[in-house]
Write the structure tokens for this entry.
Amino acid sequence: MATRKDFKKIELPPKYVPKKSEPYMCPEQLAYFYQLLTAQKQELQHTSSDVLNSVRMAEKSSADGVGDDSDSATLEQEITMNLRMSQRDNNLMRKIDAALARLDDGTYGYSVVSGDEIGIQRMLARPLATMTVEEQEEYEQRKE
């Protein structure tokens, strides 16, 4: 049986999905979420690189004076959209890094507010969740 510390080394069956019947945040579940979050992070890094390259190319075209006023407006719009995507990706990357840190320190899957189990179903639906459904709803209501 794998220990909690070994979760990064566990090879899961190809179609493994955490189940309620397993002990909450057992090594296999931790391995599942670690692999999921790591894959999301790698995909995000790849996407972010593509977005930044697009921005650089659009800025170069704009600086070179390529095209007419309509082309310039389209380039500006593209640059703005890509920069927003990059900002969104950076925010998501910070959340993924925080989730990976919680995996390492043993707090992943537990509420940052109460320390209660968030629940496997919620974690499967929202791997970046930091609060129980009830706490999240209360937080959202207070924000309004």
About this structure: The domain at 24-108 is CATH 1.20.120.910 (Four Helix Bundle (Hemerythrin (Met), subunit A)). The chain has a mean pLDDT of 87. Residues 17 and 32 are 7 Å apart (CA to CA).
